[in-house]
Design a protein that fits this description.
Blueprint lengths: L4 H11 L7 H24 L2 H6 L1 H23 L4 H23 L4 H4 L1 H4 L1
Helix pairs in contact: 1-2, 1-4, 2-4, 2-5, 4-5
């Protein structure tokens, strides 16, 4: 994921034709991609393997939801009957994507630095 493969795949999914009635959902998916890119950029710039390992779970969760949102959008683009399910998933996922981006980019190392004291 940190090599950019997922980001390129999401860009490919986003590049497909989207009906006008799904343009708002496509924009929300774009926001999800931007959050993923921001999180990855932060982790790469930090050059801290311990922090990367600590943030692996929220990063994978963020990436999984961004991918699922794009897949729901693609399904809705192919089958109008799936638009409502896509909208529900994407609107529910985006706040979690935003939250996980904030967690990953927070730089909070308290648990890493004080893990013995916290146990």
């Amino acid at each position: 994921m940190t090599a950019g493969t997922l980001g390129r795949f999401l860009d490919t999914l986003a590049a497909g034709p989207i009906p006008a009635n799904l343009s708002e959902l496509a924009a929300l998916c774009g926001e999800g991609r931007a959050h993923l890119a921001r999180a990855l950029t932060h982790l790469k710039a930090a050059e801290d393997k311990t922090y990367l390992d600590y943030m692996a779970r929220p990063l994978v969760d963020l990436a999984s939801e961004a991918l699922a949102a794009h897949l729901f959008l693609r399904q809705a683009a192919r089958d109008a009957g799936r638009a409502l399910q896509a909208e529900k998933f994407i609107r529910d996922a985006l706040p979690r994507i935003r939250m996980r981006t904030e967690v990953v980019t927070s730089g909070d190392r308290l648990t890493i630095e004080k893990h013995a004291d916290l146990l």
